[in-house]
């Protein structure tokens, strides 16, 4: 989905209103869809404290409150401004709410907010109407909210954007620290900045506009859009239709790395998965790996030629080693006339031998974390520079770059820059990159173009981790094997996400008809 700046979203809002969709309808769409999202995806608890600002962001929060009350949630409302100072739509939504739920508990500033009452706090204080840094009473309220979140263990859900965050924010600005940000309409560009990810948490985008903004060249990876790239499997097919992945990696002490990549490659649906390892660890890897996987010592020339000649894709790097022998073998692999996926030690070897970019025959997907990226570039860069770095690195190279991070970027020359929306801090553990390598390679083996494989792979990897964390009830202790085991659930999520969005579009028409009749 296109990512826009605040001016772009304001322009879209004006156009939508001018073409006959009143602002109130837009607010109803935003609030109802956000509530449906909260109902479905935050269902572990059913109590919420809605902190309401005086503008339209507050109005959205009041619609969400109404919808959740209808579903039987326990909701408390806290008004941050006097009722007389509420904006017209916000005031209207409050009056409607009070009429429908006369017993609703409403707290008002300067009474202290009832922080300990609910499992979720809705930040509906300020949205894109925010200008400059937070000051005065609101600044104090936001500090209190963040402090209570840490102490009371509620999760914070930001509507449209965390209050206090705007285009000029820095990583140390004052803003609400959200666990989930539900962006309205389109993702705003500043929400995706790596250095602000601490504030935004997980980002979900709710489409509310019929019209599209002008193309920005910067897009978010969203499940429902990627679903269109995944055809259902034909019954009339066999393993040969789903490709052969060959993974090269492993060394003494690093016998698990290629196994984790292979597990993910199998779970994404590859037809056949091979692991080529040094002879010295062959027997260890052969006993560790899934029985479905074929392991061979890559020094065996006859086996090497037989496997590689049949390969749909060659993935390399996990636990590969950096010695002279590994470097020599890496050079051989770089010359193969196959799509390549390059990670970990092989990125370090590529950084040492930059002339090998010229050897890439078909195409290569590179998946560096920021440290490996710095090695490839031979220079330091900051989180703020990631997007520019990614765009300039791919120029004149036959590569797709996956620059890992909280907001992993996918870049390729001539394409939009994509930023990922899935994933969680549970992925910050050894072996996560190996799973990602396996997923991307598995998708290429199944016929995905490398750019699509990178985009889908990054999103599926993150979403599998989100589902695994949800099942485990915690982000701590997530393992790459949990991620691989939830790949199929991520595929299912992606397909049902498409259905959800299509359903919502028909739901819009209902809302429109309701207001036209009034
Ligand atoms: N885009 C769309 O199509 C749709 C948008 N929608 C929703 O509307 C939201 C935007 O609503 P909005 O324009 O009413 O602004 P909003 O964020 O509520 O804040 C306004 C208040 O902020 C205050 N304020 C400003 N800076 C401040 C500061 N530094 N420190 C303290 N206060 C500050 C400012 O005060 P003032 O400057 O007036 O004194 C004013 O009171 C958007 O995010 C989305 O949620 C949906 O309804 C559906 C369609
Ligand atoms: K907000």
TrEMBL record:
One of its GO terms (biological process) is metabolite repair. GO terms for molecular function: ADP-dependent NAD(P)H-hydrate dehydratase activity; ATP binding; metal ion binding; NAD(P)HX epimerase activity. It catalyses: (6S)-NADPHX + ADP = AMP + phosphate + NADPH + H(+); (6R)-NADHX = (6S)-NADHX; (6R)-NADPHX = (6S)-NADPHX; (6S)-NADHX + ADP = AMP + phosphate + NADH + H(+). Residues 222-494 form the YjeF C-terminal domain. Transmembrane segments: none annotated. Keywords: ATP-binding, Isomerase, Lyase, Metal-binding, Multifunctional enzyme, NAD, NADP, Nucleotide-binding, Potassium. (6S)-NADPHX binds at residues 56-60, 127-133, 160, 257, 319, 369, 434. It comes from the Bacteria. PROSITE patterns: YJEF_C_3, YJEF_N. Belongs to the NnrD/CARKD family. In the C-terminal section; belongs to the NnrD/CARKD family. Bifunctional enzyme that catalyzes the epimerization of the S- and R-forms of NAD(P)HX and the dehydration of the S-form of NAD(P)HX at the expense of ADP, which is converted to AMP. This allows the repair of both epimers of NAD(P)HX, a damaged form of NAD(P)H that is a result of enzymatic or heat-dependent hydration. Catalyzes the dehydration of the S-form of NAD(P)HX at the expense of ADP, which is converted to AMP. Together with NAD(P)HX epimerase, which catalyzes the epimerization of the S- and R-forms, the enzyme allows the repair of both epimers of NAD(P)HX, a damaged form of NAD(P)H that is a result of enzymatic or heat-dependent hydration. PANTHER family: ATP-DEPENDENT (S)-NAD(P)H-HYDRATE DEHYDRATASE (PTHR12592:SF0), ATP-DEPENDENT (S)-NAD(P)H-HYDRATE DEHYDRATASE FAMILY MEMBER (PTHR12592). This is Bifunctional NAD(P)H-hydrate repair enzyme. The gene is nnrE.
